[in-house]
Amino acid sequence: MAQRFGSLRVYFPNLVFKIIPDARLSKNQAAFRVPLNVNKLDIKDYLTHIYNVNVTDVRTAVFPGKLTVNRYTGQKERTSRTKKAIVTTKEEFEYPPEVDVDQDFGGMEVKYEQMRRANKLKGWRIRPSQEMAGIRRKLQEKHEKSK
Questions:
Q1: φ and ψ of 52, to 5 deg
Q2: Which residues have C-beta within 8 Å of that of residue 80, sequence separation ≥ 6?
Q3: 53-60: long-range pairs with CB below 8 Å, 24+
Q4: Contact at 8 Å (CB) between 91 and 26?
Q5: Between the CA of residue 13 and those of 1, 42, 47, 49, 50, what are the distances in Å?
Q6: 43 exposed, middle or buried (CB, 10 Å; 0-12, 13-18, 19+)?
Q7: 34 contacts 73 by C-beta, under 8 angstroms
Q8: Do the bridges between strand 76-78 and strand 55-63 make them parallel or antiparallel, or are there none, so unpaired?
């Protein structure tokens, strides 16, 4: 039977841990943004069983939401709270390689969509702004006077 740390038994994880790069941490520490309902034991359990990381210590902190003003109603609102976990491992923690958006997340589809939109507007003349029209008029008047 597998070693259990937390109260949450993880078979197919539906938890999202977002890595937060932090230069202030030591080489064997990593910071994660985790869901609010996950405790320290669950974090250790998740990282140990899913990613085979030897976790020695977990520290968590819940940050309150930021105060914002709704631009439509003018009322003050708070964004949702967030939880940060700092995990200490036995060996040095290596950040995963950067993701290639074009290859992994359909970046080429976005480029093709932009090209399609550009081709759709190919025959349309873009109207210059009022400032550019004034500058052009002044340049034409100078050019006519010099002749």
A1: 55, 45
A2: 65
A3: 53/87, 53/89, 54/89, 54/90, 54/91, 55/87, 55/88, 55/89, 56/88, 56/89, 56/90, 57/87, 57/88, 58/85, 58/86, 58/87, 58/88, 59/85, 59/86, 59/88, 60/34, 60/84, 60/85, 60/86
A4: no
A5: 19, 11, 11, 11, 8
A6: buried
A7: no
A8: unpaired
49: its two tokens = 């069983």
In the chain, the amino acid numbered 144 is E
* DSSP per position, 4-28: --SS---SS-----EEE--TTS-TT
Backbone angles phi, psi at 133, to 5 degrees: -65, -40
Q: Kindly report the number of other CB atoms within 10 A of residue 145's CB atom.
A: 7
**Tens-binned pLDDT, residue by residue, of the chain (147 aa):** 456 666 666 566 788 899 998 889 999 999 999 999 999 999 998 898 888 889 999 999 999 999 999 999 999 999 999 999 999 999 998 877 777 766 666 666 777 777 777 777 666 665 666 666 777 777 788 778 876
Query: In the chain, what is the straight-line distance between the N-terminal and C-terminal CA atoms, in Å?
Result: 94
Amino acid identity at 28? N
Task: Compute the distance between CA of residue 25 and CA of residue 88 in angstroms, rounded to an integer.
Answer: 10
